[in-house]
């Protein structure tokens, strides 16, 4: 079929500034006339011509509500902009890490390679007609567009006057694998629908020893549970865990992707992953059923993960540190060593201690995966992580939830290679974590999220905290007046990062209060929601004394929690007597 290109007049729409995770708004906002069209065209206009004309682009996402409509709109606009072909995961499904893998690894039948892609996701936020939608663009390295591009996109949204679109292009069937070809003013245009899992599974098999993990999962001593929270991870879970690794079908929870995530909030934490938490013995009531040895959950687009042992929660900060400490021995991909490790600033310093002990390069970066991507592209970082349940490595340029689960299964398989038969006791998730603490010390850690706070009040709170930093003696007087049993504050600042690769400087990345004993308080405003402001408060107590690493987390952190809430005047500014979520 031959299609024509129309040029549609439009005008700028306010509020289209993409954040570190792209553009996220309510579905009703995206459904406004020209809203999605303007953003997509502004993105095309921000790219160099060779990244558009004659190029191959990936367009897929987590399958949330409005994805089907959005994919068809982007296909029509790609055709009109001279794109040569669009690759779409079957049923629009590709996890965020899989999009990165496809951009980096996949070759078309004619040898074509993708130069970038649109990912349709609002990550761990709810989906449905009244919930969230999102879009972001990833570059040819498979990572999120850098600020230089997102700034151009935003500037373009403020001046856009028209966009080209192939309105007469018929709806492409994205439920069937195959190629649909069209002819346009600039020549041939193809839409190829492909299997969502093939390229990603192939990559995972090149990183991990699947046979070793299969032996672990087939042992009668070991039990396993994986919760996709009705997100896109379900498109990979059966293939990887059941078909490739031999896990029981019954070990999969909520692994059918749904556009509204089954009405749930697809955020893998102790608050929202209720079903998994209960099954792992961490619920408020005892089910009377023996929990599995290992459990894990994913968020909507499968880039985040939560790791659980039997009646035991592994903090994301501990998780990345333990993966780094065990990677060389347990994961074939890292057998020749780690190039370096990195964490986001709010993440606990557990990784720092491992890096120092193993003499590894270490980097502390602002929140946002693109900062890790720069280090990885420069060959400076192998393993990285964020406290917000994101963990990954240099195999792609996004965080990767299933990769983290396979990393943990690899460590368990490595530790138990002599224990799977006979009477030998299994080394558990809890054993591994407690051994890590005894070696490196324990970083007691929690995060308080105050969601949908009035943006003006949130800003006032942050300004108050910055103002306090002008006098550390005054801060310590306040601190000691609240609790006399804590160390003194040694320094306080607003975190600023100079990228060692490109020299760029990122300012105002979070407010820090650093204590003499290695403890920390961190305050950040987060832009991952679609309404209001979210204040995130991070509280960390470092303990090297082996006799004190077994305390309950809330008990160890209680003095610092008290200080953080009173120092910040949290209730006074927000009107909230408690956080929305505690992790």
UniProtKB/TrEMBL annotation:
The kind of enzyme this is, by top-level EC class, is isomerase
Question: Could you give a single Gene Ontology term from the biological process aspect?
Answer: glucose metabolic process
Q: How does it assemble?
A: Monomer.
Give the region (Disordered) as residue ranges. Answer: 1-20
Among InterPro entries, the record links this protein to: A-D-PHexomutase_a/b/a-I (IPR005844), A-D-PHexomutase_a/b/a-I/II/III (IPR016055), A-D-PHexomutase_a/b/a-II (IPR005845), A-D-PHexomutase_a/b/a-III (IPR005846), A-D-PHexomutase_C_sf (IPR036900), A-D-PHexomutase_CS (IPR016066), Alpha-D-phosphohexomutase_SF (IPR005841), PGM (IPR045244)
Q: Which residues form the Alpha-D-phosphohexomutase alpha/beta/alpha domain?
A: 16-163, 198-308, 317-418
The name on file for this protein is phosphoglucomutase (alpha-D-glucose-1,6-bisphosphate-dependent)
Q: Which family does it belong to?
A: Belongs to the phosphohexose mutase family.
Gene Ontology MF, one: metal ion binding
The cofactors named for this UniProt entry are: Mg(2+)
Keyword annotations from UniProtKB, A to Z: Carbohydrate metabolism, Glucose metabolism, Isomerase, Magnesium, Metal-binding, Phosphoprotein
- Source domain of life is Eukaryota
Q: Which reaction does it catalyse?
A: alpha-D-glucose 1,6-bisphosphate + L-seryl-[protein] = O-phospho-L-seryl-[protein] + alpha-D-glucose 6-phosphate; alpha-D-glucose 1-phosphate = alpha-D-glucose 6-phosphate; O-phospho-L-seryl-[protein] + alpha-D-glucose 1-phosphate = alpha-D-glucose 1,6-bisphosphate + L-seryl-[protein]
Q: What is its EC number?
A: 5.4.2.2
- Species whose genome carries this gene: Eruca vesicaria subsp. sativa
Q: Name one Pfam family in it.
A: PGM1_C_vert_fung
Q: Does the keyword Acetylation apply?
A: no
